[in-house]
Amino acid sequence: MESDASCKSATLRTNLYATLDQVKAGRRVVIERHAAPMAALIPMTDYWELIMRRARQHRPKEEFMPTQRLVIANASGGEGKSTVARELAYSLALLGYKVALFDLDPQASLTKALGLHDDPASPARTEEATVGRVFSRDEPPPLPEPMQVHGVDVWPANDSLNSVDNVLNNDFARAANLREALDAYLSGMAEPYDFVILDTKPQRTNFLTASVAAADHLLVPVSGIKGLENLDVLLKLVKVARGIAPSLTLRAFIPNRIRENVDHHKELLHHLQTDLSRLAPVTSNVRDSLATMGGATQQRLPAVLYKPKAKVSEDIVAMTHNVLKILGVKVPA
């Protein structure tokens, strides 16, 4: 790794804050002693990528594990889909898995939370960077190349994705295009992803159907009773999506932003465990933590990278382990 700057060890204490500002701005600084490099200060982005690469190298490889395609969906808005998708993706990456993350919501909450819209000139703001292009023809064009963010490949979203529903309303046969384009992309990879995570828009639309149909496993985040009011709508949508993805299965409910001492959430958890567990398992809870999640969003980081020792980050790791167990994937040691 080439450095962008260097600093003498003798002057590091005096210049510490200025040096850290350089690192925060993205520069790598080599600390020198007697004209020889002895250590380096690197941005956290570089650090997390190194951690993920090392975890990938040391993770025991399954004899054969096809790419696990997980879609995070709920027909109701405000249930934490983007948060669950982001945190699950990075939690898996920290375990050593190769992960792709798709933002399929025109609101682009996931994309924005990762800082990809902060620069007005960012490619993530262009239509060409999104998956929208795969619906432009009967035969789907190739997916665009992803943007790498903290060691995870990300397909961003922006409001240009609003046009997808117009296309599909006129020609629903193209609802299979995203799955077919993803099939083609994975088959062309020398080392395919271990996990593909798809974040979706709320409300029952043809674009949501196409997004769900690109996956094999459906995870439903729930943060309140409202998140279950449209469950029947989502299950009907799954039946339609199975015309494209016959193996699509509701795999788990994920309670998130939970306050276990609040009556509303006590009732929600009871309902999930007693009534809805017959449909799919319920993962461990992810607690409500405005301070950590708000700080993570402000720093444009997933919580598991922003504050890995926070209680909510520990919840996310436990939830991730639950999901792996449900999928029959051995949790790396």
Estimate the strand proportion.
15-25%
- The radius of gyration over CA amounts to 21 Å
Global outline: globular
CATH homologous superfamily identity of the largest domain: P-loop containing nucleotide triphosphate hydrolases
Instruction: State the helical fraction.
Output: 40-55%
Q: At the third CATH level, what is the topology name of the largest domain?
A: Rossmann fold
Protein model, in words:
The chain has 333 residues and is an alpha/beta fold. It folds into 2 domains: 5-44, YefM-like fold (3-Layer(aba) Sandwich); 53-327, P-loop containing nucleotide triphosphate hydrolases (Rossmann fold), CATH 3.40.50.300. It has 14 helices and 11 strands. A hairpin with a 2-residue loop joins strand 6 (147-149) and strand 7 (152-155). Helix 4 (81-94) packs across helix 14 (311-327) and helix 8 crosses helix 10 (231-241). The two termini are 29 Å apart. The mean pLDDT is 93.
Strand-helix topology:
Layout: E1 5-8, H1 9-12, H2 16-24, E2 29-33, E3 36-41, H3 44-58, E4 68-72, H4 81-94, E5 99-104, H5 109-113, E6 147-149, E7 152-155, H6 162-170, H7 177-187, E8 195-200, H8 206-213, E9 217-222, H9 226-229, H10 231-241, E10 249-258, H11 263-276, E11 286-287, H12 290-298, H13 303-306, H14 311-327
Parallel strand pairs: 1-2, 4-8, 4-9, 5-7, 5-8, 9-10, 10-11
Antiparallel strand pairs: 2-3, 6-7
Offer a few descriptive terms.
333 residues, 8-stranded mixed sheet, YefM-like fold, alpha/beta, 17% strand, 2 domains, Rossmann fold, 3-stranded mixed sheet, 14 helices
